[in-house]
Amino acid sequence: MLKHIVRAAGAAVRVSSATSSATTRTLPFSCAALCSPCSVTTQPITRALWMLSNNGTSTGYRPKLFSSKVIYPSVSCGCGALHTEGDKAFGDFLSDEIKEEEKLQKNKSLPKMSGGWDLEMNGTEAKLTRNMSGEKITVTFNVNNSIPPNFEDEVEQGGQQKLEEKSEIVSAPNFVVEVTKQTSKHSLVFDCHFSEDEISHGEGEEQSEIFAIREVSFQPEGDLDWKETSYTLNTDSLDWALYDHLMDFLADRGVDNTFADELMELSTAVEHQEYIKFLEELQGFVKCN
Amino acid sequence: MGIVLQNLQKIVPVKRSRLRRDVETLTHIMGIQKFDLGIICVDNRKMQQINSRYRNKRSPTDVLSFPLYQDLRPGKLPCPLHKDELNLGDVFLGVEFVMSRCEEESSDLYPALTVTAAHGICHLLGFRHETEEEWNDMLQKETYILNEYNRLTGSHLVPLTKKSSQKN
């Protein structure tokens, strides 16, 4: 099912404005690295060179198209791509960042889920599967955009001592549970979310359930596309007794609070692993190793 | 809305529909079906935290009630003016604590949770057990509720207040 991907994309839009200040992890790249080398006005490094060639003035004289310092890389390489002093500093920074992140990595291997779940990874998407007496239960989630903003904590913490106690980054993705019976052509699909209290406060102050079912729907078995024409039960205005039965149904199939806790741990480890991989790829791209 | 059930812990697997059914039976017996109330299942850590914060006791316990109407005369139902005020408050059930007691006594969890919930709901209705008179009133109320419950369900539940007095 692709629903969680669509959802994750939605979440990305929702949190994008807050993400930069939300996590304690500072993004180790500046805009300069990701923009086109030609966009002079938006790149600090290029702008710095512009300033040098103008003796500090930004009006009047414009550099010629083939003038030396603007175009030619200060570090040469056989790949033919641009390499600036900034790129070198960027590469060195990434190298340090990767080392720091590897130190923070508790374990190279991913934590195991209890309950006999098989894990299958496809990039940032994880799929957990188990079979139970003729039923197949599949749980999928994507670690992209799965770190919720916790800027409220930063505001509340205030004091110096608390600022030093940075909260750990936790990945809490939406996850989709799909229950398939051998005799049925349709799967029962649950769209589940972690509660915000659980993610942001972590220890002690939580007043909400660890996770909640948001939507329930029947979908054609094995169909990758989410069929929007299938009736979707939204739990916002649902009879509480029905909601409890749905939660019990999931718990009987191994999707309970313990599972949700372990999923969060797994997702956090996957996200961190993917983050380090991304940094390494970025370093390779910048340095042109 | 009726009963809002929340399970904030992962130590004891709780069948929510079973717990809801049992508590709903209690609310019918007590004639408080039209009121909302929260039943919140927590572990010892959380229970100890709440007990410490609100009662200055640094230990977990089986049940803590937070009545919305704090000055109710025992047994008198509140008369709210607005529909929004049809709420009695929250009962925190220490399911880990109750489970440990059940293991010691080799008894079942759900009957024990029903007895504990009945005690907690009585607190929401203004019952206390700080004096002997209050204790007797509460015991009488719980006995009535659980006798009715036993009659309807064929159970043999005993009030929590009575159990506590036997222990003391």
UniProtKB/TrEMBL annotation, chain A:
Q: How does it sit in the membrane?
A: Peripheral membrane protein
Q: Which GO terms describe its cellular component?
A: extracellular region; mitochondrial matrix; nucleolus; plasma membrane
State the UniProt keywords alphabetically: Acetylation, Adaptive immunity, Apoptosis, Cell membrane, Complement pathway, Cytoplasm, DNA damage, Immunity, Innate immunity, Membrane, Mitochondrion, mRNA processing, mRNA splicing, Nucleus, Phosphoprotein, Secreted, Transcription, Transcription regulation, Transit peptide
* Cellular location(s): Cell membrane; Cytoplasm; Mitochondrion matrix; Nucleus, Nucleolus
Q: What's the main place this protein lives?
A: membrane
What Gene Ontology terms for biological process does this UniProt record contain? apoptotic process; complement activation, classical pathway; cytosolic ribosome assembly; DNA damage response; innate immune response; mRNA processing; RNA splicing
- Family designation: Belongs to the MAM33 family.
Q: What's this protein's name?
A: Complement component 1 Q subcomponent-binding protein, mitochondrial
Query: Origin organism of this chain?
Result: Takifugu rubripes
Q: Which gene encodes it?
A: c1qbp
From TrEMBL, chain B:
Domain of life from the UniProt record: Eukaryota
Does Acyltransferase count among this protein's keywords?
Answer: no
Q: Which InterPro entries did the record assign?
A: MetalPrtase_cat_dom_sf_prd, YbeY, YbeY_CS
UniProt GO BP:
rRNA processing
Q: Which residues form a coiled coil?
A: none
Q: Which PROSITE patterns match?
A: UPF0054
Could you confirm whether the keyword Ubl conjugation appears in this record?
no
- Entry cofactors: Zn(2+)
Could you tell me the keywords of this UniProt record?
Answer: Endonuclease, Hydrolase, Metal-binding, Nuclease, Zinc
A single GO molecular-function term is: endonuclease activity
- UniProt family annotation: Belongs to the endoribonuclease YbeY family.
Which NCBIfam families does the protein's record reference?
rRNA maturation RNase YbeY
Name used for this protein in its record: YbeY metalloendoribonuclease
